[in-house]
UniProtKB/TrEMBL annotation:
Protein name: Uracil phosphoribosyltransferase
Entry-linked NCBIfam families: PRK00129.1 (NF001097), upp (TIGR01091)
GO molecular function, one term: GTP binding
InterPro entries listed in its UniProt record: PRTase-like, PRTase_dom, Upp_B, UPRT, UPRTase/APRTase
Organism of origin: Candidatus Onthenecus intestinigallinarum
Length: 209
């Protein structure tokens, strides 16, 4: 069974509350999403392997540790996942970026795929799939299935706000994928929106409504 990591650090909780507020405008919403994504990435990358190297400090030769060159890729689910990429790339600038385009059909709430471009060596990389909202879990589960079909075996999911239904769906479909979230909300409403949530993440991020 995958592990659910709820990142309840006070800074993250504070920033998520600001994002939830309907009065928060596009510029602040975008900046907050980037900041939270970076703070969360600190924990998502906690198990990156290290190797020992020998260096010369101004004082003496010393054995010390650096990241062992593990290959990473960040894969935003379009559109709203795009808002999480820069924050993560601040921490792991050598990571590659793949893109998966999915939207939820407003009537069926089923994910419809419209774009996919992943790094050529995706099967050798550790992937961090990112999307601010995990509602029914349909989009994230479909995106992960699609990536797995390309041969990728090591996947984590980083989301901002999750509904219990979405967590359950991803854990059932992908028991090998650990999930990192900043908040687990109460439930979904009749339109598949997370309650209390923050509304439509894509629209608030890009100012399209
Ligand atoms: C939102 C969100 C997720 C999806 C979550 O995207 O960014 O991708 O809904 O819902 P689910 O867990 O029920 O699948 P949306 O489909 O609104 O597309 P957008 O990012 O282009 O706005
Ligand atoms: N997608 C969003 O952007 N918000 C929700 O609450 C659910 C799905």
């Amino acid at each position: 069974m995958s592990t659910l990591h709820v990142m309840d650090h006070p800074l993250i909780q504070h920033k998520v509350s600001l994002m939830r507020d309907r009065e928060t405008g596009t510029k602040d919403f975008r900046e907050l999403l980037e900041e939270i994504s970076m703070l969360m990435a600190y924990e998502v990358t906690r198990d990156l392997p290290l190797k020992e190297v020998e260096i010369e400090t101004p004082v003496c030769r010393a054995k010390t540790k650096v990241i062992s060159g593990k290959k990473l890729a960040v894969v935003p689910i379009l559109r709203a996942g795009l808002g999480m990429v820069d924050g993560i790339m601040n921490l792991v600038p050598a990571a590659k970026i793949g893109h998966i385009g999915l939207y939820r059909d407003p009537d069926t709430l089923e994910p419809v795929e419209y774009y996919c471009k992943l790094p050529a060596d995706v099967e050798e990389r550790d992937l961090i799939v990112v999307d601010p909202m995990l509602a029914t879990g349909g989009s994230a589960s479909a995106a992960i299935s699609f990536i797995k079909r390309r041969g990728c075996k090591s996947i984590k999911l980083e989301c901002l706000i999750a509904a219990p239904e979405g967590i359950e769906r991803v854990q059932k479909d992908h028991p090998d994928v650990d999930i990192f979230v900043a908040a687990v909300d109460e439930r979904l409403n009749d339109h598949g929106y997370i309650v209390p949530g923050l509304g439509d993440a894509g629209d608030r991020l890009f100012g399209t409504k």
